[in-house]
Amino acid sequence: MASIFGHGIAAFTIAKVASKKASIGLVVLAILSSILPDVDVLAFNFRIPYESPFGHRGFTHSILFAIIWALCICVLFGKQRKMLYFLVILFSTLSHGILDALTTGGKGVGFFIPFDNERYFFPYQVIKVSPIGVERFFSEWGLQVIFSELKYVFLPCALILIFKLLINRLLKED
After folding, report:
1. How does 111-125 read in b/e, with b if 16+ C-beta sit within 10 Å?
2. Residue 129 and residue 1: Cα distance in Å, rounded?
3. pTM above the 0.85 mark?
4. pLDDT digits (tens, 9 = 90+) for 74-91
Protein backbone atom coordinates (compact mmCIF):
# COMPACT_ATOMS: atom_id res chain seq x y z
CA MET A 1 0.00 0.00 0.00
CA ALA A 2 0.97 3.59 -0.28
CA SER A 3 1.34 5.29 3.11
CA ILE A 4 -1.44 7.24 4.80
CA PHE A 5 0.48 10.38 3.83
CA GLY A 6 0.20 9.57 0.12
CA HIS A 7 -3.48 8.66 0.42
CA GLY A 8 -4.16 11.81 2.41
CA ILE A 9 -2.48 14.23 0.00
CA ALA A 10 -4.32 12.65 -2.94
CA ALA A 11 -7.67 13.18 -1.18
CA PHE A 12 -6.74 16.74 -0.18
CA THR A 13 -5.93 17.47 -3.82
CA ILE A 14 -9.20 15.94 -5.03
CA ALA A 15 -11.22 18.06 -2.59
CA LYS A 16 -9.38 21.28 -3.46
CA VAL A 17 -9.66 20.70 -7.20
CA ALA A 18 -13.37 19.87 -6.94
CA SER A 19 -14.20 23.09 -5.13
CA LYS A 20 -12.11 26.14 -4.34
CA LYS A 21 -14.40 26.63 -1.34
CA ALA A 22 -14.21 23.03 -0.08
CA SER A 23 -15.03 23.15 3.61
CA ILE A 24 -12.63 21.83 6.23
CA GLY A 25 -15.27 19.18 6.99
CA LEU A 26 -15.30 17.96 3.39
CA VAL A 27 -11.49 17.92 3.23
CA VAL A 28 -11.30 15.91 6.49
CA LEU A 29 -13.97 13.47 5.25
CA ALA A 30 -12.08 13.09 1.97
CA ILE A 31 -8.81 12.34 3.75
CA LEU A 32 -10.49 9.85 6.11
CA SER A 33 -12.23 8.23 3.14
CA SER A 34 -8.92 7.84 1.33
CA ILE A 35 -7.50 5.96 4.32
CA LEU A 36 -10.66 3.96 5.18
CA PRO A 37 -10.09 1.08 2.72
CA ASP A 38 -7.13 -0.08 4.82
CA VAL A 39 -9.51 -0.99 7.64
CA ASP A 40 -9.35 -4.37 5.92
CA VAL A 41 -5.98 -5.06 7.57
CA LEU A 42 -8.13 -6.07 10.55
CA ALA A 43 -8.99 -9.17 8.51
CA PHE A 44 -5.55 -10.53 9.40
CA ASN A 45 -6.64 -10.57 13.07
CA PHE A 46 -9.63 -12.73 12.15
CA ARG A 47 -7.53 -15.08 10.01
CA ILE A 48 -9.31 -13.99 6.85
CA PRO A 49 -6.87 -14.82 4.05
CA TYR A 50 -5.47 -12.03 1.90
CA GLU A 51 -7.01 -13.63 -1.20
CA SER A 52 -10.53 -13.57 0.30
CA PRO A 53 -12.91 -10.95 -1.10
CA PHE A 54 -12.87 -9.54 2.44
CA GLY A 55 -9.10 -9.84 2.85
CA HIS A 56 -6.54 -7.07 2.44
CA ARG A 57 -7.08 -5.00 -0.73
CA GLY A 58 -10.41 -6.73 -1.21
CA PHE A 59 -13.96 -5.37 -0.97
CA THR A 60 -13.00 -2.16 0.85
CA HIS A 61 -10.80 -1.31 -2.14
CA SER A 62 -13.58 -1.96 -4.66
CA ILE A 63 -15.50 0.49 -6.80
CA LEU A 64 -18.77 -0.75 -5.26
CA PHE A 65 -17.51 -0.02 -1.74
CA ALA A 66 -16.47 3.51 -2.82
CA ILE A 67 -19.94 4.15 -4.29
CA ILE A 68 -21.75 2.88 -1.18
CA TRP A 69 -19.45 4.87 1.14
CA ALA A 70 -19.82 8.06 -0.95
CA LEU A 71 -23.61 7.72 -0.95
CA CYS A 72 -23.66 7.34 2.84
CA ILE A 73 -21.41 10.36 3.37
CA CYS A 74 -23.31 12.60 0.96
CA VAL A 75 -26.63 11.72 2.65
CA LEU A 76 -25.22 12.26 6.15
CA PHE A 77 -23.10 15.36 5.54
CA GLY A 78 -23.83 16.77 2.08
CA LYS A 79 -26.70 19.12 2.97
CA GLN A 80 -27.16 21.36 -0.11
CA ARG A 81 -23.93 20.15 -1.74
CA LYS A 82 -24.73 16.44 -2.05
CA MET A 83 -23.25 15.99 -5.54
CA LEU A 84 -20.00 17.69 -4.53
CA TYR A 85 -19.75 15.52 -1.41
CA PHE A 86 -20.59 12.38 -3.38
CA LEU A 87 -17.97 13.01 -6.06
CA VAL A 88 -15.19 14.11 -3.70
CA ILE A 89 -15.75 11.15 -1.37
CA LEU A 90 -16.12 8.72 -4.28
CA PHE A 91 -12.86 9.81 -5.95
CA SER A 92 -11.00 10.07 -2.64
CA THR A 93 -12.02 6.53 -1.69
CA LEU A 94 -11.20 5.23 -5.19
CA SER A 95 -7.82 6.95 -5.08
CA HIS A 96 -6.77 4.50 -2.37
CA GLY A 97 -7.08 1.47 -4.63
CA ILE A 98 -5.53 3.35 -7.53
CA LEU A 99 -2.44 4.23 -5.51
CA ASP A 100 -2.25 0.67 -4.14
CA ALA A 101 -2.39 -0.70 -7.71
CA LEU A 102 0.67 1.44 -8.47
CA THR A 103 2.73 -0.08 -5.65
CA THR A 104 5.53 -2.61 -5.92
CA GLY A 105 4.06 -5.16 -3.51
CA GLY A 106 1.04 -7.12 -2.47
CA LYS A 107 -1.25 -9.27 -4.53
CA GLY A 108 -3.23 -6.65 -6.40
CA VAL A 109 -6.44 -4.70 -5.78
CA GLY A 110 -9.98 -6.10 -5.94
CA PHE A 111 -11.51 -3.21 -7.90
CA PHE A 112 -14.49 -5.23 -9.14
CA ILE A 113 -15.36 -7.30 -6.04
CA PRO A 114 -18.05 -8.74 -5.61
CA PHE A 115 -18.59 -9.13 -9.37
CA ASP A 116 -15.04 -10.28 -10.09
CA ASN A 117 -12.72 -11.45 -7.30
CA GLU A 118 -9.58 -11.00 -9.43
CA ARG A 119 -6.89 -8.67 -8.06
CA TYR A 120 -5.29 -6.12 -10.34
CA PHE A 121 -2.12 -4.05 -10.55
CA PHE A 122 -1.45 -1.30 -13.05
CA PRO A 123 1.30 -2.09 -15.54
CA TYR A 124 3.38 0.78 -14.14
CA GLN A 125 4.19 -0.04 -10.49
CA VAL A 126 6.37 2.78 -9.21
CA ILE A 127 5.34 3.48 -5.62
CA LYS A 128 7.39 1.53 -3.10
CA VAL A 129 4.97 -0.58 -1.07
CA SER A 130 4.64 0.60 2.52
CA PRO A 131 5.27 -1.82 5.38
CA ILE A 132 2.28 -2.70 7.55
CA GLY A 133 2.81 -1.39 11.07
CA VAL A 134 4.17 1.86 12.49
CA GLU A 135 7.38 0.36 13.86
CA ARG A 136 8.35 -1.03 10.46
CA PHE A 137 7.58 2.28 8.76
CA PHE A 138 10.39 4.04 10.66
CA SER A 139 13.15 2.20 8.83
CA GLU A 140 15.14 2.29 5.60
CA TRP A 141 12.12 0.71 3.90
CA GLY A 142 9.84 3.48 5.18
CA LEU A 143 12.28 6.11 3.93
CA GLN A 144 12.20 4.54 0.45
CA VAL A 145 8.38 4.68 0.57
CA ILE A 146 8.45 8.38 1.44
CA PHE A 147 10.87 9.16 -1.40
CA SER A 148 8.80 7.25 -3.97
CA GLU A 149 5.61 8.97 -2.76
CA LEU A 150 7.29 12.38 -2.94
CA LYS A 151 8.07 11.67 -6.59
CA TYR A 152 4.89 9.91 -7.69
CA VAL A 153 2.18 11.34 -5.39
CA PHE A 154 3.22 14.57 -3.63
CA LEU A 155 4.91 16.21 -6.62
CA PRO A 156 2.03 15.55 -9.06
CA CYS A 157 -0.49 16.71 -6.43
CA ALA A 158 1.53 19.88 -5.78
CA LEU A 159 1.71 20.61 -9.50
CA ILE A 160 -2.05 20.10 -9.85
CA LEU A 161 -2.75 22.41 -6.90
CA ILE A 162 -0.38 25.09 -8.23
CA PHE A 163 -1.99 24.83 -11.69
CA LYS A 164 -5.46 25.14 -10.10
CA LEU A 165 -4.32 28.20 -8.12
CA LEU A 166 -2.93 29.86 -11.26
CA ILE A 167 -6.10 29.16 -13.23
CA ASN A 168 -8.23 30.60 -10.40
CA ARG A 169 -6.11 33.74 -10.35
CA LEU A 170 -6.26 34.14 -14.11
CA LEU A 171 -10.03 33.72 -14.12
CA LYS A 172 -10.36 36.21 -11.26
CA GLU A 173 -8.53 38.86 -13.31
CA ASP A 174 -11.09 38.69 -16.14
Report:
1. bebeeeeebebeeee
2. 5
3. yes
4. 999 998 999 999 999 999
